[in-house]
Amino acid sequence: MKRRTLIAHAAVAALSLLILPACGPTGSASGSGGPAHPEVDAIFADLRGDRPGAAVGVLWNGEVVHRAGYGAAHLDHAVPITPETVFDIASISKQFGALAALLLESEGNLELDADVRGYVPELPDFGAVITARHLIHHTSGIRDWPHTMALGGIGFTDVISFEKILRMLYRQQAINFPPGSEYAYSNTAYNLLARVIEVQSGMTFREYTRSRIFEPLGMTRTHFSDDYLEVVPGRAESYAPAEGGEGFQRMPNQLTALASSSLHTTIDDFILWMRNYETGQVGGEAMLRTMVQPGVLTNGDTLDYAHGLSVGDYRGLPTFGHGGSWVGYRTNFVRFPEQNLSIAVFCNVADCDPAGRARRVAEVFIGDLMGPAPEASEPEPDPDGPDLTTDQLQEYAGSYRSPELDSTFDLAVDDEGRLVACHWRNDPSVLSPTGADTFTGDQWFLPEVRFVRNDAGRVRGFTVTGGRVRDLVFERQE
Q1: How many Å apart are CA 5 and CA 3, to the nearest integer?
Q2: Pick from 94, 183, 98: which is nearest to 140 by CA?
Q3: Rounded-to-integer distance, Cα 90 and Cα 68, Å
Q4: Whole-angstrom distance, CA of residue 350 vs CA of residue 265
Q5: Which helix (H) or strand (E) holds 201?
Q6: Fewer CB near the last or first residue (10 Å), C or N of the chain?
Q7: Is residue 292 classed as helix, strand or coil in its secondary structure?
Q8: Which residues make beta-bridge pairs with 264?
Q9: What is the rounded average pLDDT of the residues 446-457?
Q10: What is the pTM of this model?
Q11: How many CB atoms lie within 10 A of CB 370?
């Protein structure tokens, strides 16, 4: 296979991982890693300087061909990002939760097709069997906690602990669909999977993944965070562009969502993980083949999601990987198995676009093997909804409570003749009519609101539906 990397890069690849990077100027790729490919440096040139940035690692045929940091890990103290900077890699974490389940199965301590209520009896009986396999493939029907908690008034920068997520789950009264019949991405499902692993292994999820995965691979700076107050040396802060476009604002990370997110690691450690897909040191070749096998629905349809990994292609070349997004962290991992190329991009700023940058990095090394670039499609405009008078909107005014979330929205018509949903912990959301008794909010947590009437035609409640939550009931309070 033709390579574009310089001979010098390959010569120092093995040596580079043995040398601690010097702390060079903030944002400079030189002195913060190596080897560094100039075309990859150019993809991240806009992240240099006294601003949040990214760490990048590229493994090709077993060799590290790019390893660098760009920008600042901590703006208050001008700490540069290096390949040894610790990031919360968000949903990239899921592949480790799935692998932990497969390892526990191989030890004879977990049945992937058994009812998980046999392991976690606190889980409500939803009238259908939910298995660990359903949890892994996002086919359980369990609602996604970021949406349900937002409806409960909990913001992403609040303290969101593993135990709090489970307590919310144990109060749920319904699921989105019969398990196995559909796909709907659910972080909550992976958190339940972590609890199952804890129960069956007799260890905390952090301890189990450390002893079975991270320690054998030498990933000494990697752990699942189970304490948001823990001091983690070398950890990058997360940021978002400040309102008004001037500078950046810190986005506090107080999440401990085991298995679905909250994995703290470095590019150097993650390179060891990417190499495991080549060597099978942890799990073995057969288990790693299982990792990339997609889930299958009860009707026989095959998913694009495997075991914590999305399976697809880019410009005609097969890929698998995963992205991540939490507060200001944006991350992406992609592997091209036939070309033996793996790329990881960890960002600590919300507008980084790690997936797009990872694809551009891939083009640097194997672009000559790729098909045509995909054409951009124009989004279709949203259709206009019906015009309702103030009197018609008043029919929906009132207080509505979800017993599952212990959360109440107050709906009222404002001075501008708009229906507004208010929650004491959330920003108000203007509800715009889209059809008969259906509305959409201008806040993301109210994507579709459908009002329900009694036999007399009076509004008695509404349901909230989105991509990961369906028909969550709010009852009108008299």
Answers
A1: 6
A2: 183
A3: 20
A4: 18
A5: helix 187-201
A6: C
A7: coil
A8: 88, 223
A9: 97
A10: 0.90
A11: 17
